[in-house]
Structure to design on (109 residues):
């Protein structure tokens, strides 16, 4: 699953969740934006934040955003398994409500 923060219409950053069926990976893709702009966009969308170059994605908000696009009947269970696996691997944030995510350039950047 990918959370993309890209420059949208009128150069306003847009946040969207993509590849929701691929729960074997989770990362944050930033387009041609500063970290500050990416952070503001994530916070405004309610999906997370950027801190010192690390992405933090809110689990409940991510689930709500991605679930609308999911098509597999077992998606909810697979999402829960992804979150558990990430937490077991040390990717849970200190707040317990979010996961750390790799930050990569967006394909559309």
């Amino acid at each position: 699953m990918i959370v993309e923060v890209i420059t949208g219409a009128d150069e306003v950053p847009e946040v969207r969740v993509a590849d929701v069926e691929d729960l074997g990976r989770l990362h944050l893709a930033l387009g041609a934006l500063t970290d500050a702009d990416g952070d503001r966009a994530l916070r405004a969308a309610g999906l997370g934040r950027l801190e010192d170059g690390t992405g933090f994605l809110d689990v409940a908000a991510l689930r709500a955003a991605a679930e609308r696009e999911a098509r597999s009947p077992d998606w909810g269970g697979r999402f829960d398994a992804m979150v558990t696996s990430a937490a077991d691997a040390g990717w849970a944030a200190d707040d317990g409500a979010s996961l750390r995510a790799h930050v990569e350039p967006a394909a559309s950047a």
Remarks:
- Residues 2-105 form one domain.
- The mean pLDDT is 89.
- The chain has one domain: 2-105.
